[in-house]
Amino acid sequence: MADHPAEIPVAGVTALEHTADVGIEVRAPTPEELFLRAAQGMAYLILEHDRPAPLETRRLTVTATDRAALLRGWLRELLFWHETEGFTLWDATFHRLDAKGLRASIRGGPDPGQPVREIKGVTLHGLTAERREGQWYARVIFDV
User: Fold this and answer.
1) How far is CA 96 from the centre of its chain?
2) Contact call for residues 121 and 142 (beta carbons, < 8 A)
3) pLDDT exceeds cutoff 50 at 13
4) What separation, in Å, do the N-terminal and C-terminal C-alpha atoms of the chain show?
């Protein structure tokens, strides 16, 4: 990850050094903000520029066995939209978010530029999403 800055211009998101992959650590006051910041951090790793203006709203529902798996499912769905349609998240409103599921309205649009890196997947390696020291914390490693 030496080719990209340690600080990502998304509040509460820091890039991680990891052999042959990229990752993020995310801190937030609420689970909703944690999931949003993780998605915005992933978008920045792909684009390395500001996200496009929101032109469209989509609905997304994800279920999982626990909060970490839910975070992975959320990011995988957003990554799929980016890979297949060029749709990049700008913002989200969560209508439901608990340890086993989420329902959200996603605002975003097509990326106006070329991605600087391809993220192939959201790995299970070191995946964490939990309450820690009075705030929410996540760690995600992406396969590039």
Assistant:
1) 17
2) yes
3) yes
4) 10
* Amino acid identity for residue 90 in this structure: W
Matching residue, tokens 């530029």: 113
Burial of residue 122, with CB atoms counted within 10 A of its CB: 0-12 exposed, 13-18 middle, 19 or more buried: buried
106-138 pLDDT, tens digit per residue, is 999 987 778 888 899 999 999 999 999 999 999
Burial 28-41 (b: 16+ CB within 10 A, else e): beebbbbbbbbbbb
Q: Give the residue from 110, 113, 69 showing the smallest Cα distance to 89.
A: 110
Complete DSSP assignment for 127-142:
-EEEEETTEEEEEEEE
C-alpha distances (whole Å) from 116 to each of 48, 130, 136 are 7, 30, 29
Contact between residue 109 and residue 54 where contact means Cβ atoms under 8 Å apart: yes
